[in-house]
Design brief:
The chain has one domain: Alpha-D-Glucose-1,6-Bisphosphate, Chain A, domain 4. Helices cover 29% and strands 33% of the residues. The protein is built from 2 helices and 6 strands. Strands 2-1-6-5-4-3 form a 6-stranded mixed beta sheet, covered by helices on one side. It is globular.
C-alpha cells in the first residue's frame, strides 16, 4: 500500500497532503505518532535520507508487516510524506495495510496540528 503526494509515480493508493512544516520536523512528528500506536517497533532510522522503517505486528497471529516512511521537502515552505506498508508474509492483507496508513496519517495530522497550535517557547 503506497501513500504518496499527488502526481507520484506509481500512482499512490492514498494521496498525502503537504504539511506546513520542514521535512525534518515532519519526520520527527511522524516518528512520535507512530511510536504511540500499538505493536509498532522502530526497526531502522536513516536521518540523512529522512527515512524511518517500522515493523508492525498483527494483533492475532503476531505476523510482521513492514512500513517505510520518508519525509520530503515540498515547495514553497512545506513538506510531504511517502509511506509504504506491506505484509512480510502472504499475499492478502484484508486491507490492513490501507487501514494502518489511514490511521497513521490521521495521527500525524493530529500531531502536526497540535504542534502548530502551541505557542513558541519563550
Amino acid at each position: 500500500m503506497l501513500a504518496a503526494p499527488a502526481g507520484w509515480t506509481p500512482k499512490p493508493d492514498i494521496v498525502t497532503p503537504v504539511y506546513p512544516v520542514p521535512a525534518d520536523r515532519l519526520l520527527a512528528a511522524f516518528g512520535r505518532a507512530a511510536a504511540a500506536l500499538p505493536r509498532a517497533f522502530l526497526a531502522a532510522a536513516y536521518p540523512e535520507a529522512r527515512q524511518l522503517h517500522w515493523v508492525v505486528r498483527s494483533a492475532v497471529f503476531n505476523f510482521p508487516d513492514l512500513v517505510m516512511a520518508q519525509a520530503m521537502p515540498h515547495d514553497p515552505a512545506g513538506s510531504t510524506l511517502l509511506l509504504y506498508s506491506r505484509s512480510a508474509y502472504g499475499y492478502g492483507d484484508f486491507r490492513v495495510n490501507r487501514q494502518r496508513l489511514t490511521v497513521w496519517l490521521a495521527a500525524l495530522d493530529n500531531a502536526v496540528r497540535q504542534s502548530a497550535e502551541r505557542p513558541p517557547p519563550l
